[in-house]
Amino acid sequence: MSKTKQKIVEASRELFNVHGYGQVSIRMIALKLGISSGNLNYHFKKREDILEYLYFEMVFDFDQRIDTLSVIEISFKQIRNDINDSMERMLNYKFIWTDLFNILQSNDTIRAHFTKINPKRISGNLFLFDRLYQMQFMRTANFQNEYKILAERMVNFGDTWIYTSEVYNRTSSKKYLECQVNAMLAMIYPYLTKKGVHEFEKSFPKLFN
Q1: Residue 148, pLDDT above cutoff 70
Q2: What does the pLDDT average to over 18-44?
Q3: Could you give the CA distance from residue 50 to residue 42 in angstroms, rounded to a whole number?
Q4: How many angstroms separate the CA atoms of 90 and 160, rounded?
Q5: Is the pLDDT of residue 69 over 80?
Q6: pTM here?
Q7: Alpha-carbon torsion 151, 156, 159, 161, what sign?
Q8: What whole-number distance in Å separates Cα of residue 61 and Cα of residue 67?
Q9: d(Cα 117, Cα 139) in Å, to the nearest integer?
Q10: How many other C-beta atoms can be found within 10 angstroms of the C-beta atom of residue 35?
Q11: CA 150, CA 114: separation in Å to the nearest integer?
């Protein structure tokens, strides 16, 4: 990627995060960079092209992680680190998650990818639950689809925590991020066996002080 194109991407992401995708025009991006709209259009013909570039830049790591789940060593600390890394990355592209519904409605390319990857995200959680079950950390399901419901709930939480923080005027501080990471991690706690509870509490003693 050329230096100019990289600067356009970075400036666009910053403006989108501050003002929202729908409120930022090509002209605003060009003014921020001190270039003409024509110069910007040479690299990106329309604003939607920048949006798509940023979206696929964001999800690249997510897609990679899903594809390599089977070779990752599972532990509660690893799970928390993975949640933290994902949420930190999401904050860098905050505008997507605060306006996700409208973006999915207006952009066919992003909607097609998001629709395709969502079942994989749920399957990834189910794979994780199965590994924890094999380690005797998670109990047997009490009813059909109990763990599928949990997997979907975790995915939905992941999609909406940034939007919720903006609605209630909460800051995206390190402390708030830590609270949200722990909130998602805690979703699996009621499903743990005694062995799993012991390992979980040993892994995160500060949560129980």
Answers
A1: yes
A2: 95
A3: 12
A4: 11
A5: no
A6: 0.91
A7: negative
A8: 10
A9: 27
A10: 17
A11: 20
Q: Which two tokens stand for residue 29?
A: 């991006």
pLDDT at 171: 62
CB 56 within 8 A of CB 112: no
Between 145 and 71, name the one with better pLDDT: 145
Q: Which two tokens stand for residue 87?
A: 């949420």
Model pLDDT for residues 38-51, shown as the tens digit of each residue = 999 999 999 999 99
In the block, residue with structure tokens 């939007």: 163
DSSP-derived secondary structure letter, 107: -
Confidence band for 174, pLDDT divided at 50, 70 and 90: confident
Give the chain's length.
Answer: 209
Name the residue among 82, 171, 61, 85 with its Cα closest to residue 125: 82
Q: Give CA–CA dist 85/81, Å, rounded.
A: 6
Domains and CATH numbers, the chain: 1-45 (1.10.10.60), 54-208 (1.10.357.10)
C-alpha R_g of the chain: 20
d(CA 70, CA 126): 12
Q: Read off the tokens for 14.
A: 């910053």
